[in-house]
Amino acid sequence: MRYTLAVLALTLTCAAPALAQNAMPAAPAVLLTDAIDRPGQDLSGLWAYSTDLYRTAETDINGRPPAPRAMRFRDINVDAEVAKKPDVDFFEFDMDKAPKATLPGAWNAAEPELRWFDGLMWYQRHFTAEAVGNRRAFLRFEAVNYRVKVYVNGQLAGQHEGGFTPFAIEVGKLLRAGDNQVTIGVDSTHDDTTVPPTVTDWDIYGGVTRPIRLIYTPETFIDDEFLHLDLDGHIRGSVHLNGASAGNRDVSVKIGTGKAIALKTDGNGDAHLDIAAPKGLKLWSPDSPTLYDVAFAAGDDTLTDKIGFRTIQAKGTDILLNGKPVFLRGISMHEEEFGANPARRMTPEAIRALLGEIKTGLHGNFVRLAHYPHSELTTRMADEMGLMIWSEIPVYWSVDFGSDKTLLTARHMLAENILRDRNRASVIVWSVGNETPNTPERNRFLATLADDARARDGTRMISAALLVSHNMKNGHIEMAIDDPLVEHLDLMAANTYNGWYGDDKLADVAKETWVMPAGKPMIFSEFGADALAGVHDAKNPMKFTEEYQAEFYRQTLAMADNIPALRGMSPWILKDFQSPRREHPVYQNGWNRKGLISETGVHKEAFDVLANYYVGKEKD
Ligand code: GCB
């Protein structure tokens, strides 16, 4: 079963308690997996915008339907309407005369007065469309933060919740050949039931942060495809067709220059593939990131993706990549470009600049994409450059673990994330949460997500970044992973900040020891300390100096070297990032300073400490 976007909001509000641990929720009715490789009309560019802090376009003063004079999404020309009844009609918007902003790009950087805007914003533009004819047409959004309603030529076409995953809205019946108007109401506000919750440690970044494109498909089209190499040396996968004639159809899959493999769909439009991997198949790895052109065809529809083949597995305390133990030389990263005024405008150049610092600068092979699914361009570039990825959904700190609505929202996000990226060889971990409290509600919530992840894609490790406990044992500090969630995870991941937060002296950190459940690999998903680039005090290295941060890394890395099950790390964090929590007027000014690099690209001393450590690990 697949759900349609228009009914999603209703489903979410009506979710009965019994739903929580029931069967996995349906996938979206339309996925358009790999839409990025389909031709389409890019709607990037200038859009008119209008803030709507009191939501006048959604409701009147008494909670009833809004007054027509406030409905930004109407398909009208305001001047022409007024001219019809000048003594009666008036409007409290006029999108044709509204200011314009460039999309994609969060609104915070568009105008100084929008820096802290957190509410409902209307965007509108016109575009020329071809006649749809006997095809289907979709508006595909790569990400809108956080909720969105989409109107085409004045009609509600669909809606979506969740700021970091793609969705497609079918618009064929609403489009006109020629001029069309599209209006989107983007609501950045979070509340007790959203994912993430209201309080995080990153910026709001409301708006349309990734491209919007108009895509035409044949009436029945290739909606989803998944190919992977299994541990037994077989390539397995599936192709899903969407449309009236999806059942009992011929499908073909061609890997590289191999022979086309002929498949047939069942009554649900699903075809399954299972072949022994071709002899000489070159495996994907960070050292040799081989990708194959894989061509899918069904009737008039064709699609070519670039797919890498590799296996990844947790075995005992090891992580095996293509059957060989690997150490994850990583770093965490937010989705935020270099520059003094970022707007999550993740162009290929912006992504390459960040990933290049990891691959070449740090000698890394791994990146934790914190704390939400990053742009699809990022996971694809990691495929090409050879970086392994930890992918995560924003179940962060204190989401409402007791709420079935929140759980369903998180389950949909996880599904959209996995279904978008499960053809990316770079992705080796699906993470279901970050630093969440150990309570029965949270355990049920995260265990449900871990089960979902495994059911949708059993070919990767499942993890979560865990809180740990800090104990005194025989006069020294012993850290413990003692979280019941571990039994649902393949990889244990711990966040630790001893020597930054808490009372531990930095000089003692290297001697701290760790205990944890046996039989699984463990990584540090975070450790870090703030430093303002350029602030030095070698004699008295206080917090916020580069020297303190560098020493924090030395101490923590020495501690890490004594943990037998440690198989990698993704310290916090590659680059300083904007966060309204961080307001020290000298050192922070709205930036979390735990970056190894400043927001404008200046390396801090600790960068080389980690790079040298990774050079050593590379040789091991
Ligand atoms: C954490 C969080 C991360 C914060 C970081 C910090 O544990 O997972 O989102 O930004 O600590 O800087 O405190």
Helix content: 10-25%
Q: Helix count?
A: 9
Number of strands: 40
Uncertain segments are: 6-20
pLDDT averaged residue by residue: 95
For the termini, the CA-CA separation is 49 Å
Strand order of the largest sheet: 28-29-30-31-32-35-37-38
**So what's the overall shape?**
globular
Structural class, by secondary structure, is: alpha/beta
* Rg: 25 Å
Described by strand count, sense and barrel closure, the largest sheet is: 8 strands, parallel, barrel
Beta-strand share of residues:
25-35%
The molecules bound to the chains, other than polymers, are: (2S,3S,4S,5R)-3,4,5-trihydroxy-6-oxo-oxane-2-carboxylic acid
How would you describe the overall organization of this protein?
This protein is an alpha/beta fold and 620 residues long. Helices cover 18% and strands 31% of the residues. The protein is built from nine helices and 40 strands. Helix 3 packs across helix 4, helix 5 runs parallel beside helix 6 and helix 8 packs parallel to helix 9. The radius of gyration is 25 Å and the shape is globular. It binds (2S,3S,4S,5R)-3,4,5-trihydroxy-6-oxo-oxane-2-carboxylic acid.
